[in-house]
């Protein structure tokens, strides 16, 4: 009997892109799979999608496929990810935008050709969302490899920085990042000199943020790449598209004006200061939200990140919109076999706060053991959900209800209200688009919600909605047999036992008709 309500979403990468690995991850309970050009090469996406669809068939379980757009963040890394750069306090690191300019051991390569034009002396660069701090010393010109002097030095000395050949911290895979554009010529290209503020290691390409500048403005984003990805999304039958780095209402409107495949859901990424400022409007215009805690913490300050995380989750819960949380969830499991105590506490708080889905990033994209990370996350979620006081949460929701309610809303509200008084073990709902199931789980019932639909797209989307167990049922049924079939499905999937009471929510037509939710019945499993 599946009892886990909070959904698990993974990021696909070289460590998890094979068909065999995807099959085992889906069997282990992965509900959604995120595709990002940050972790795969564009030319590999068709092969990966084929592996994913074949893995679904072999695992006999469909998942929600999520595509992230605007992955135009600035990243730096060593020329060879297998040979990391080890830096000490006071070392000077050179950053170039073309690997051919790497004329010594202490050079990092940036994925954005405009990077030297975006920085100024005195700027603070925050790597890995603040784990590593660099101060920009100067922006110079790299004449050529033969003419360029050796500028890799420790400040105030002639001692070069240490470069390690011990191999990467993560042996599983190197990090693939699509090079959006390259300079036409390396001649006279610029190089950025930075002072290292804390001991660190740079290997796979890691994210860079400025402490005092918005470096991810839409004009820097290569929108043509995203448009091509949207065209591909239709061919690949993507279920959810996440728009990241949204800088304002006008920016969101321009994104929304781009056509997307039919029935594909739009999620807005909440990570910039502007997305927090326009939070209500952004959520209202979207089908859901994805919180990127890394950039959010950099842009708003670490002291505000926890408070904002909780308030964003609550706002989405109140509006009945699914919300996904990501970034450094089980970060230690990228290279280790167990999560840290603080990570376990972090996940527990996510579950208590009401997040719909928890997104693993590096843990599954390039970590040593993606399957172990998924199993660990599921274990923490199940333990946490066993300590939720649903009736207390429901009372807080019921207290703030806005009246009058629509008929459909009233039916869903009454269904949840009736669970405790009837000792119902399950709520069954018939849903064409998934909206009825979303309305029900908004009130946080103590039991699971069996969402029966005749639309595969709806089933996949409901995979990432908290508390919903979606099942696909053909619409080619004899009239009047939908309730009977629903009860059989509940028993077949071990969601309810013979003789138990279940609550049925459907329409007056006893069929899959959008907007017909008006019926509430109490049934006994035969």
From TrEMBL:
Gene3D superfamilies: Phosphoenolpyruvate-binding domains (3.20.20.60), PK beta-barrel domain-like (2.40.33.10), Pyruvate kinase, C-terminal domain (3.40.1380.20). InterPro entries: Pyr_Knase (IPR001697), Pyrv/PenolPyrv_kinase-like_dom (IPR015813), Pyrv_kinase-like_dom_sf (IPR040442), Pyrv_Knase-like_insert_dom_sf (IPR011037), Pyrv_Knase_brl (IPR015793), Pyrv_Knase_C (IPR015795), Pyrv_Knase_C_sf (IPR036918), Pyrv_Knase_insert_dom_sf (IPR015806). GO terms for molecular function: ATP binding; kinase activity; magnesium ion binding; potassium ion binding; pyruvate kinase activity. The keyword Kinase applies. It holds the Pfam family PK. Its cofactor is K(+). It is an enzyme of class 2 (transferase). Residues 145-183 are annotated as: Disordered. Transmembrane segments: none annotated. Pathway: Carbohydrate degradation; glycolysis; pyruvate from D-glyceraldehyde 3-phosphate: step 5/5. Coiled coil: none annotated. Residues 145-162 have a biased composition (Polar residues). Its EC number is 2.7.1.40. Keywords: ATP-binding, Glycolysis, Kinase, Magnesium, Metal-binding, Nucleotide-binding, Pyruvate, Transferase. Residues 409-520 form the Pyruvate kinase C-terminal domain. Residues 4-140, 185-374 form the Pyruvate kinase barrel domain. Belongs to the pyruvate kinase family. This is pyruvate kinase. It comes from Blepharisma stoltei.
């Amino acid at each position: 009997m599946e009892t886990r309500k909070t959904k698990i979403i993974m990021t696909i990468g070289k460590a998890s892109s094979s068909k065999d690995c995807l099959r085992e991850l889906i069997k282990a309970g992965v509900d959604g799979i995120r595709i990002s050009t940050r972790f795969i090469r564009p030319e590999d996406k068709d092969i990966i999608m084929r592996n994913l669809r074949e893995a679904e068939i072999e695992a006999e379980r469909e998942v929600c496929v999520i595509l992230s757009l605007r992955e135009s963040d600035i990243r730096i890394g060593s020329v060879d990810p297998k040979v990391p750069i080890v830096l000490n306090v006071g070392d000077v690191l050179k950053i170039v935008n073309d690997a051919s300019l790497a004329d010594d051991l202490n050079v990092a390569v940036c994925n954005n050709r405009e990077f030297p034009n975006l920085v100024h002396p005195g700027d603070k660069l925050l790597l890995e969302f603040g784990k590593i701090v660099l101060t920009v010393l100067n922006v110079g010109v790299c004449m050529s490899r033969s003419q360029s002097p050796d500028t890799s030095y420790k400040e105030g000395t002639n001692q070069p920085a240490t470069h390690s050949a011990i191999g990467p911290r993560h042996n599983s895979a190197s990090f693939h990042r699509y090079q959006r554009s390259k300079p036409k010529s390396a001649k006279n290209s610029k190089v950025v000199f930075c002072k290292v503020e804390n001991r660190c290691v740079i290997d796979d390409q890691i994210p860079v943020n400025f402490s005092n500048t918005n470096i991810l403005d839409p004009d820097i984003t290569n929108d043509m790449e995203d448009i091509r990805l949207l065209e591909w999304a239709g061919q690949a039958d993507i279920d959810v598209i996440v728009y990241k780095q949204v800088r304002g209402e006008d920016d969101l409107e321009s994104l929304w004006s781009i056509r997307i495949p039919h029935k594909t859901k739009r999620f807005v990424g909440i990570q910039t200061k502007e997305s927090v400022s326009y939070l209500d409007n952004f959520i209202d215009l979207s089908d859901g939200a994805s919180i990127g805690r890394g950039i959010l913490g950099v842009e708003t300050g670490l002291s505000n990140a926890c408070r904002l995380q909780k308030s964003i989750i609550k706002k989405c819960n109140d509006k009945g919109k699914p919300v996904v949380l990501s970034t450094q969830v089980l970060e230690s499991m990228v290279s280790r076999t167990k999560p840290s105590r603080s990570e376990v506490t972090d996940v527990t708080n996510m579950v208590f706060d009401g997040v719909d889905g928890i997104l693993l990033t590096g843990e599954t994209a390039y970590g040593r053991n993606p399957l172990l990370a998924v199993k660990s996350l599921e274990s923490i979620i199940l333990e946490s959900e066993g300590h939720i006081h649903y009736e207390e949460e429901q009372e807080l929701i019921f207290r703030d209800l806005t009246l009058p309610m629509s008929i459909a809303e009233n039916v869903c509200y009454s269904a949840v209200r009736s669970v405790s008084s009837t000792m119902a073990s399950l709520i069954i709902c018939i849903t064409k688009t998934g909206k009825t199931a979303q309305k029900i789980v908004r009130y946080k019932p103590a039991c699971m919600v069996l969402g029966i639909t005749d639309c595969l797209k709806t089933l996949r989307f409901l995979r990432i909605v908290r508390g919903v167990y979606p099942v696909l049922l053909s619409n080619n049924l004899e009239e009047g047999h939908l309730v009977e079939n629903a009860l059989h499905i509940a028993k077949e999937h071990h969601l309810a036992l013979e003789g138990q009471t279940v609550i049925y929510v459907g329409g007056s037509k006893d069929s899959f008709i959008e907007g017909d939710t008006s019926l509430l019945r109490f049934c006994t499993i035969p």
